[in-house]
Design a protein that fits this description.
Helix content: under 10%
Number of helices: 0
Number of strands: 4
Radius of gyration: 17 Å
Structural class: mainly beta
Strand content: 25-35%
Largest sheet: 2 strands, antiparallel
Oligomer: single chain
């Protein structure tokens, strides 16, 4: 679980903005295990800050046979 810590005193006001970034990789790992990003090989970074607008909440990636990732391609969810 990510944690951020900073000093605070009464009367302080903070604005917290989420930074939603995912790192997708492949391999045999145990669920819940923490890894250094550089140690897991090729990864695909999905940074929603790079999406065209906040409405683009879907990211599509593909793992090619070469082991390279394509994408992400951001899109807006279809309405039901």
């Amino acid at each position: 679980m990510p944690v951020a810590v900073w000093p605070a005193t009464p009367g302080d006001t903070f604005t917290i903005i989420p930074n939603v970034t995912y790192y997708i990789g492949t391999g045999s790992t145990a669920q819940g295990t923490c890894y250094k990003l550089a140690s897991i090989g090729r990864v695909c970074t999905i940074d929603f800050e790079q999406a065209p607008s906040p409405n683009y909440t879907l990211a599509t990636i593909e793992l090619e046979e070469t082991g390279a990732w394509t994408g992400p391609v951001f899109s807006v969810p279809l309405k039901a």
